[in-house]
Structures are given as C-alpha cells and as structure tokens.
C-alpha cells in the first residue's frame, strides 16, 4: 500500500496538451505559469501599459486586461505596440465580457489569448416565467453559439493563438441553471458545451478555468472538469483561481486553500491569486504557493523552527537578518534553528544551517555536517563567508 501514488512526495501533474500563449507554453510539460490582471481601464493606454509593465517586472508571466468595447479592443493594439517599442513583448490575454464577436475579432489580433465566459452567451432576454429548456432548444442554442463563435475560433486557429473557456460560478447561463442548478456540474456542462463546439471546429488551443468565490465549490468544479475532460479525451490545461478572494491574510489563505489543494492533486497549469489589492501583490503569493508545493523554486527556502523555551537566541530577529542578507540567492535552502536538540535532520536537509549551540554561540552547518562554531554576534557574517567559500554566493 505504501507505493500508492497518493503517498508520493513529488506532485505528479495531470498530463495535458501544451498550449502556446505568446512566448510561453501552458501545460503539464511546462512550469506552472503565474498570471494576473491589471486594474487600469484599457482605454487609459498609458496607465494600462505601465500597469502591464509593473506586473511583468514583478514576475507576472501572462497579463490579462479587460476589453468591454470595440474602442477598448483598438486600445489594446496601441498598448501592445507601446510595450514592444519601449519595453518587451509580454503575453497578453483579453477578457471579452459579451457575446458580440466584433470586439473579440478585433482584440484577438493584438493579444495571445482571448478569454470568454460561456455564461454570457445568452441570445434571448431571460424569460422569468420559464423553468426549463427542452433538449431541442438546448441543441438549437448550441448551434447558435457555434455559428457565433466560429469566426473567432477560425481567427485564433489561423494565428495560432489560445482561447480560455473561463466559467464563473456566479454567471452561469440560464439554460445551465435550469438543468443543473447553481452547481459544479452546471459549470462543467457549461465548459463542455464550448469544448465540444471547438472540437467540431477542430480547435484545441484551449485552457479552461472554473472559478468560484467559495473554495469548496471551485475544488469540486475543477476536479469534476478534469475528470470529465480526461474521460472524453480532452486533455486541456487548467487555469486555477478562487475568484473574489478578498484581501489581506484571509484573501491569501483562501486562495491558497483552493489553489494548493488542486495543485497537490496534480491539477493546474497556470494560477492566479485574485486579491482586492494592487495586482503586483498577487505575484509573490503565487510564487510562494508554487514553491511551497515543490512545483517551482524561485526564492530561498527558509526552514526555521517556531522557537520555544530551548531557543538560544532571538530567532525572529536573526531570521530577519539572515533573510535580508540572503534572499537574493535563488535556489538555496537555509535553516535557522534555535537549538540542535532534535538533530540536523530537523533542518529538512537544508543546504546551510544556522543553529543555536550554547548561549552566545551558534553552529554553522553545511547539509548535516557541522562546519564551525562562532560567537553569535558573528553568525550571519560567518554564514555568508561559508556560502562564499562554497562558490554559491552572488552579490545582490
Ligand atoms: Fe525549540 Fe530547538 Fe525545536 Fe527550535 S529547534 S523549537 S529551539 S527545540
């Protein structure tokens, strides 16, 4: 039983197709991609360009912007041009919040991926007296969606660009609500309707998202979606997110609860942490989630004990100083431990250890080997010297 895949220490990702988004690839063969969205109005060309650049410089790998009108779609052309002229190309995604194809067709020429929301493909005014749709009506609506979607799909196919089928729990189409209710199954059926249409049009550059503002709902929807797609032979990558997660600690924890749980199950090829804060603040959270799950390593991994009555120095302060001195050394694991009572194994096999030895003295470890003892006041400098001796130091 111990060899059951559930007990592995490395996450095995669900095998997916690779989908190109500009210069990046999204899918299980590639690192999980970090993305976010600017909150500037796309018509504010200068502001939006600066917002994209800020996000990209913060480590955001794909940037989304909203395109609610044809004027916005045309502004994206200018934004893209400005980025290419004065900065560098950044993979861009346009959020098209309507079912009018004119806007989508315009903006698709200027971005690398178009995101549509199947819930917004409603052709007739909702009738409050209706309680159900017949199978024939659903089929007829499917046909109308296909006719509407076809020019966009053809354009994306021709230009080798991607489509995100982005279902939101809060905006399911009426026909889905009637048949499946406000449920994860309704979300899955909504996405599958569009996947089948794209399949009939022989288009497969697809990424799927199933966002909800409640983590248990999004967990169920993504799990069900992955199961259903794989069962039907559609191995499309998933974009993960808990929508409207809020701000502060709880927003981060809520997003992490949803995203990390799915990542641990092997689901998810790109992520967004949606915070009600400056979008740049989402990026370190994304990278921290990926690093904590062992999926990407983009910063020093600090292993530190919580401190207790045995602690031989001010652990919080020393950890802070060690972090300030070494945070730029990507790829290292550094342990800061208040004492060695439980042995070097407690340091989780860190590359280096800074460990309380006796009051006023600390030990420096390289892996599990104690290298030297120094007075506490010289500890951080001695740690840096050791990293330099090993040729693993770079200047900040
Ligand atoms: Fe306490 Fe030592 Fe454990 Fe830190 S490593 S929590 S100081 S026993």
Automatic annotation (TrEMBL):
Q: Which residues form the IspG C-terminal domain?
A: 301-388
Per the UniProt record, the source organism is Cyanobium gracile UHCC 0281
Per UniProt, the keywords (alphabetical) are: 4Fe-4S, Iron, Iron-sulfur, Isoprene biosynthesis, Metal-binding, Oxidoreductase
The protein's job, in short, is: Converts 2C-methyl-D-erythritol 2,4-cyclodiphosphate (ME-2,4cPP) into 1-hydroxy-2-methyl-2-(E)-butenyl 4-diphosphate.
The record ties this protein, via SUPFAM superfamilies, to: Nitrite and sulphite reductase 4Fe-4S domain-like
Pathway, per record: Isoprenoid biosynthesis; isopentenyl diphosphate biosynthesis via DXP pathway; isopentenyl diphosphate from 1-deoxy-D-xylulose 5-phosphate: step 5/6
| GO MF annotation, one | 4-hydroxy-3-methylbut-2-en-1-yl diphosphate synthase activity (ferredoxin)
Q: Where is the IspG TIM-barrel domain?
A: 16-287
Indicate which residues the UniProt annotation says bind [4Fe-4S] cluster: 305, 308, 339, 346
Q: Which gene encodes it?
A: ispG
User: Looking at its record, which EC class is this enzyme?
Assistant: oxidoreductase
Return the cofactor note field: Binds 1 [4Fe-4S] cluster.
Read off the Pfam families from this record. Answer: GcpE, GcpE_C
Q: What name appears for this protein in its UniProt entry?
A: 4-hydroxy-3-methylbut-2-en-1-yl diphosphate synthase (ferredoxin)
Q: Which family does it belong to?
A: Belongs to the IspG family.
* EC assignment: 1.17.7.1
**Catalytic reaction list:** (2E)-4-hydroxy-3-methylbut-2-enyl diphosphate + 2 oxidized [2Fe-2S]-[ferredoxin] + H2O = 2-C-methyl-D-erythritol 2,4-cyclic diphosphate + 2 reduced [2Fe-2S]-[ferredoxin] + H(+)
Q: Which domain of life is it from?
A: Bacteria
State its cofactor.
Answer: [4Fe-4S] cluster
Cite the Gene3D superfamilies for this sequence: Dihydropteroate synthase-like, Sulfite Reductase Hemoprotein, domain 1
């Amino acid at each position: 039983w111990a060899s059951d895949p559930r007990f592995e220490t490395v996450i095995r990702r669900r095998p997916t197709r690779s989908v190109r988004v500009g210069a990046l690839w999204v899918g299980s063969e590639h690192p999980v991609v970090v993305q976010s969205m600017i909150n500037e109005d796309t018509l504010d060309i200068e502001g939006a360009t600066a917002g994209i650049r800020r996000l990209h410089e913060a480590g955001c790998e794909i940037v989304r912007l909203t395109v609610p009108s044809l004027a916005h779609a045309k502004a994206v052309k200018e934004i893209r041009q400005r980025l290419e002229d004065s900065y560098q190309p950044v993979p861009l995604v346009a959020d098209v919040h309507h079912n009018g194809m004119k806007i989508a067709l315009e903006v698709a020429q200027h971005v690398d991926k178009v995101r549509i929301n199947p819930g917004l493909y409603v052709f007739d005014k909702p009738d409050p007296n209706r309680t159900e749709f017949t199978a024939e009506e659903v089929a007829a609506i499917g046909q109308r969606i296909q006719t509407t979607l076809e020019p966009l799909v053809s354009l994306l196919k021709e230009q080798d660009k991607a489509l995100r089928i982005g279902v939101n729990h809060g905006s399911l189409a009426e026909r889905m609500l009637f048949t499946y209710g406000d449920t994860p199954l309704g979300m899955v059926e909504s996405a599958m309707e569009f996947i089948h249409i794209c399949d009939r049009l022989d288009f497969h550059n697809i990424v799927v998202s199933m966002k909800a503002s409640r983590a248990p709902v999004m967990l169920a929807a993504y799990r069900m979606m992955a199961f259903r797609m794989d069962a039907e032979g559609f191995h499309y990558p998933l974009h993960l997110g808990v929508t409207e997660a809020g701000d502060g600690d709880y927003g981060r924890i809520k997003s992490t609860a949803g995203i990390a749980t799915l990542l641990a199950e092997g689901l998810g090829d790109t992520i967004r942490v949606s915070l009600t804060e400056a979008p740049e603040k989402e990026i370190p959270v994304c990278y921290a989630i990926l690093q904590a799950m062992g999926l990407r390593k983009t910063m020093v991994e600090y292993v530190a004990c919580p401190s207790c009555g045995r602690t031989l120095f001010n652990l919080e302060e020393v950890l802070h100083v060690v972090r300030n001195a070494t945070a730029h050394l990507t790829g290292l694991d550094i342990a800061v431990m208040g004492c060695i009572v439980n042995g070097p194994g407690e340091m989780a096999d860190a590359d280096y250890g800074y460990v309380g030895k006796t009051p006023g003295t600390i030990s420096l470890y390289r892996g599990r080997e104690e290298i030297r003892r120094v007075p506490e006041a010289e500890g951080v400098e001695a740690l840096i010297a050791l990293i330099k001796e090993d040729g693993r130091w770079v200047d900040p």
